[in-house]
Design goal:
The protein is of the alpha/beta class. It has one domain: TIM Barrel (Alpha-Beta Barrel). Helices cover 38% and strands 15% of the residues. The protein is built from six helices and eight strands; from the N terminus they run βαβαβαβααβββαβ. Helix 1 links the parallel strand 1 and strand 2.
């Protein structure tokens, strides 16, 4: 990668803190390995898909507490490796099974509590609908806006995971969101992230 003059905009992913119902040593170790991989790649950040509800649970508050405890543990290790941690808030349709952090505000509130070295990965697909999005992008600013993912939201959406659209094929006002990103200080790469089992 280095010899080719390439940059790694982010390593995806760490997280899944709730996978075993509690923050186990195995989960901590798995995330430390992800930090090591990001460091080896000299990635701009390690993107965190934090995990949803533990199996059999309906307690979102508990899931979010597990996630924050896990992020604190990962961040402590990541600081020593020179790796920035990026929380990726996912669309609320994933709150149960993939990520119980669902808005940029939620993610930045965690960042406020945990301190230096942690920020957000903002994916237009997940947060385009949020009326607070512009304000929260500006709140993140260049220090905590660590990754920028783009694609489009198709109507109708045929699959909850693998039916993202090419930019311009859906309903997201990507030029507007892009302008907000620039206003917030984004100068990094634009990651085109399109999962589409039906159209590729």
């Amino acid at each position: 990668i280095r010899a080719a003059g390439l940059e790694v905009s982010g390593l995806c992913r760490g997280g899944w803190y709730t996978a075993e119902g509690a923050l186990t040593q195995a989960v901590k170790d798995d995330n430390r390995r992800a930090v090591d991989e990001a460091a080896e790649l000299d990635a701009a950040c390690l993107v965190m898909v934090v995990g949803g509800l533990p199996d059999g649970s309906r307690d979102l508050d508990n899931a979010r507490a597990i996630v924050e405890e896990g992020l604190a543990d990962t961040l402590d290790y990541a600081r020593g490796q020179g790796v920035k941690v990026a929380i990726e808030p996912l669309h609320p349709m994933y709150a149960a099974d993939r990520a119980c952090v669902n808005t940029t505000r939620q993610a930045l509130d965690i960042c406020d509590r945990l301190g230096e070295g942690i920020g957000v990965a903002i994916d237009a697909y997940h947060v385009w609908w949020d009326p607070e999005l512009k304000a929260q992008m500006l709140r993140a600013g260049p220090e905590r806006f660590l990754a920028w993912h783009i694609c489009d939201w198709l109507v109708p959406t045929r699959d909850l995971l693998t039916d993202r659209g090419m930019m311009g094929d859906g309903v997201i006002d990507l030029p507007l969101l892009g302008a907000w990103a620039i206003e917030a200080g984004w100068t990094g790469l634009y990651e085109v992230e399109i999962f589409s089992a039906l159209d590729w």
